[in-house]
Specification:
- The protein is mainly alpha-helical.
- It has one domain.
- It has a two-stranded antiparallel sheet with strand order 1-2.
- The longest helix has 29 residues.
- The protein is flat and about 55 Å long.
Length: 169
Amino acid sequence: MALRGKPLFIVLAGALFLLLAVPHPVMATQPHGDPEGIVVHQLSHVFFVFSMAILIYWLHNRKLSVQPGWREIRYAAFFLILWSTGAFIAHLLDEQLGWISVSRMDTWTMHVEPSRGGVALAWLYYIVKLDHLLCVPALFFLYRGLGRLSSQKDSGGEPDADAKREDPA
C-alpha cells in the first residue's frame, strides 16, 4: 500500500527536474512575418494602449477608482500600458527598423549589437525586453482586483447596475 503513489511521484518529480535542469531558449517578444504581420501586430499594441487608457479614464471619471477592486484594476491597466509600449518599442527596434541585432553566445548569454544609437539604444532594448517585470504585476493586480470585486458582490457590497433595475416580470 505504501508504494502505491511513489511511482507517480517519481515520474512527476523527474519531469519537473528535467524541465528545470534543461533550459530552452525563450524570447520575451516574438517575431512576426513581414511586412503585414508586424504592422498589424504593432497596430494592435497601439489599440491596446489606447483601450487601457480609456479604461483608466473611465474608472477615474466615474469615481470607481476609490473602491479597492477597481483601483487595482486601474493599476493593472497602467502596467499593461507600460508592457504594451515596451513590446512596441522592442518590435520597432529589432524587426521594423533593424537597429538592433541579437546573437546568442550560449544558453545563458546573448549579445545585443546596436547598428545605430550606441550603447544607450542597446540598454533601452535590453530594458524593454524585460517585459515580464511589467506584465506579471499587471496580471497580479488584475487578479486581485477581480477577486475583490467578486468577494464584494458575494458579500452583498455595492450592487451592480443590473441589480438596480427592476425585474419586469
